[in-house]
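REQUEST FORM: STRUCTURE PREDICTION
Request ID: SP-0412
Submitted by: Lab K.M.
Chain count: 1
Length (residues): 516
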Amino acid sequence: MRRRLILKMLPAGLLALRGQGYAQDRGNGLIPAFKGTPRIAVGGIASECSTYSRIRSRMPEFTTLRGDEIFGAPLSQPLHRYDFDLLPTLEASAPPGGPVERKTYEALKAEYLERLRKLLPLDGVYLAMHGALSVEGMDDAEGDWYAATRSVVGPDCLLSAYYDLHGNLSQRSVDTLDALTAYRTAPHVDRIENVMRATDMLTHCLRYGLRPGIVWASIPALLPGEQSSTEWEPGRRLWADLAEYNRLPGILDVSQLVGYVWADEPRSAASVVVTGTNVEEQKRIATELAQRYWDARHDFHFGTPTGTIDECLSRAMSSKTHPVVISDSGDNPGGGGNSDQTFFLQALLRAGAKNVLLGGMTDRPATDACYKAGVGAVLPLSIGATLDPVMCKPVHVRATVKHLTPVSHPDEGEAVIEFNGITATLSARRRLYHSAEAFRDIGLEPTNFSIVVLKCGYLNPTMKPLANPALMALSPGAINQDIVNIGNHRRKPTWPWVPDLTYTPKPYVSARIHRS
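STATUS: Completed
RESULT:
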């Protein structure tokens, strides 16, 4: 498959080195410039997995793209720019949730590796990942995927990975990859730019004979994503100037990751990752940014007022402005929550709240019952606690079916019901009701309600302007925001669990660089 190559986004470090042909030696990060058309495989696996969740992600939860299906995905559109041979394998992605069932992961990995072997020889691999994948019985799923990839493609093939801002890194991953970049915004509005950075590094290095390497500084600090948004301080300033570092000679990419706090694993931590060809400069930057992040750790905070469920609901019911949008943060499916917990629904019924929109309840049996009954039917429903009946109890109501989305398979079912002054969405599978469009697509206008309750964390950019005001309920769940009390059994000593922890950055140089 042929793609058009665009060079305008070359970092200054690459511009300074490109076109030198057979330059110096591998120790300086330079290899013979490529002759012919490089062959680059495309594949990966991605999910954000809370180890505090009792549910498991299995094969039906994964969207698996095979072969040319990969190039039809929205995030693959930048790949159409290249004139290299981009060769698709398998890309599997699951919504955030609990750990991945081991046999599901092994089956996906085996198929990916089989497809990869058929493409040999390869000059590069672009890996569409996330960084917070957790697999049953495995501490470092991404590291395992990279090591398996390396065992197939050999030591000379370049591997470049794409990460979420909330990814965790391990020494194994750093020692296996050649390049890595991550989002620079939260909420994540730079997905396409991130794909472009990861693929540009790989294609430019192959075209101009560069051998990149990674320097990594792990930072023993973890924060919820809801405290570390780049829309307010200190996140705004800590991420704002990363692109400027890319202009330095020998620097290809500088990324800073918050890490994923709800993975109780040894690798869980914030980090700075510098990809380039100038090791000393990479070490300097990694040290500087890691120290800057560590020094700012006490400055992170929630971007909206917070409280318990009852506190937020009381404020909303007494508010003179509307709609009051409340995040049910502990059950946010966008961060790994189950999306079937009823704590907030129980509170709404106890308080007698009216004109409420409750978005995001997942309940396959209740959804199926609505489809069987039809629009306009009034029926008894048991709502919630179907994915995790241990965490909470279902709520029993008598509801009217107001809307049913036409679907081709029951797994995609989506209903709107009304009961006791509450309008609620039901879905057969966990799905995000974070954006205003998610409601408008099913005939619901959020601004028509006094209170809108979303199973989310920070608000989606389309919902945020509608909130008048926005509140965040620190609710229980698989991604409980009270991180100090969620349990910390397998991490290395980390702030804030160790409040008086001391830290001095000690950048780690990838074994791939030492190999050069």
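NOTES: Confidence is low (pLDDT under 50) at residues 1-31.
Reviewed by: T.R.
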